[in-house]
Input
Amino acid sequence: MTTSLALAPWSEPGLDLLHRQNTPELTEHLGGVESPEQVRRRHERYLAMADGQMFLLMLDGEIAGSVGYWPHAWQGRDVYETGYAVLPEYQGRGLAVQALLLCARRAGREGALPWLHAFPSVRHDASNAVCRRAGFELVGEVAFEYPPGHHIRSNNWRLPLTG
Output
């Protein structure tokens, strides 16, 4: 494991990262590749987040991926949802687990909601392994809509942010 992993607030270099992450391999379980306009709008949403935050995942001064948390109404309760992506050249080093734990600490410190949830596709073995290794509890399989209009079978993982 590396000790030089850090989270930086989302900023202009994030637009290039989103374009680099917008590949068939990295979006296979997320509804597929987005148009350049959709990527630009996503970047603008990340810059404007008022509750929750997106981060650039920094490794030795280089952008290696992204992680973040944001409010989500889930089964009648307000929780935080999280998402994470590591560029292919940085995968296989445990960075996603470390990033998710750093993000959870930030959400617990800065946020007001008690739970952090992740909803990876049931077919995305690597993403489910990240949740398990980060200490999330598997609640069960659920129907989940992401992106809007695209329904998938997901695992619902959760981590308490209090106590």
